[in-house]
Amino acid sequence: MILDSVARLGSYKAISPRFQQAIDFLNANDLHTLELGKYEIDGPHLFAIVQEYETKRKEDSIWEAHRKYADIQIVVEGEELLGHAPIETAEETTAYKEDSDYALYSANGNYFKLDAGYFAYFAPHDVHSPCVAVDEPSKVRKVVIKVAID
Fold first, then answer.
1. Least packed by Cβ within 10 Å: which of 6, 7, 9, 22?
2. Rama region for 37: left / alpha / beta (φ>0; ψ in -120 to 50; rest)
3. In what order do the strands lie in the sheet containing 110-115?
4. Cα-based distances in Å from 98 to 7, 43, 65, 102
5. Residue from 19, 15, 21 nearest 1 by CA
6. CB atoms closer than 10 angstroms to residue 100
7. % helix, strand, coil for the chain, step of 5
8. Going edge to edge, which strands form the sheet with 118-122?
9. Which distant-in-sequence residues (6+ apart) come within 8 Å of 121 by Cβ?
10. DSSP characters for 38-97?
11. 0.85 exceeded by the pTM?
12. Distance between CA atoms of 86 and 11, rounded to whole angstroms?
């Protein structure tokens, strides 16, 4: 897992050659006004999902992990807590669904606050719990970039 400023996303290009394409997408679009939905950047290998939602209480959150994709989760407006746990410390509660690329888990991880202008990178071995309210539920605008793991 990585937590850093979106301005420093380029520092992590060694993780995947697709990071530069993700950076180019971010620089070419106003994330505050981009319509909600899915944006293909490099077909099924790299795409962005622009979403808005109300954060939820910790007790209502879910823990998930992916196998085909890593997530770059960028908060554009608002703030939220994100949970993180190493996959070997979590218990799978819903079997992996290949068509949706996720499995659900029960985990006791650590939470951190993600403010606007920051991102969290989750690899397939990172179980994570997104969309959690900092204090009270509030509106968040987020872009999730899905990076295929080849």
1. 7
2. left
3. 91-97, 102-106, 63-65, 126-132, 79-86, 110-115
4. 33, 18, 12, 7
5. 15
6. 9
7. 20, 55, 30
8. 2-5, 118-122, 69-77, 139-148, 46-54, 37-42
9. 1, 2, 3, 12, 15, 70, 71, 72, 73
10. EEEEETBTEEEEEEEEE-B-GGG--EEE-SSEEEEEEEEESEEEEEEEEGGGSEEEEEEE
11. yes
12. 23
Number of H helices, E strands in the chain: 1, 12
Structure token digits, residue 137: 């539920």
- Please give the pLDDT value at position 150: 80
Amino acid at 28: A
DSSP-derived pairing of the beta strands 79-86 and 118-122: unpaired
Three-class SS state of 20: helix
Q: How far apart are CA 131 and CA 120, in angstroms?
A: 12
CB neighbourhood size of 5 (10 A): 11
pLDDT, tens only, 56-105: 999 999 999 999 999 999 999 999 999 999 999 999 999 999 999 999 99
Q: Which amino acid is at 116?
A: A
Whole-number Å distance between alpha carbons of 12 and 1? 12
Q: How far is CA 52 from CA 6, 81, 110, in A?
A: 18, 15, 24
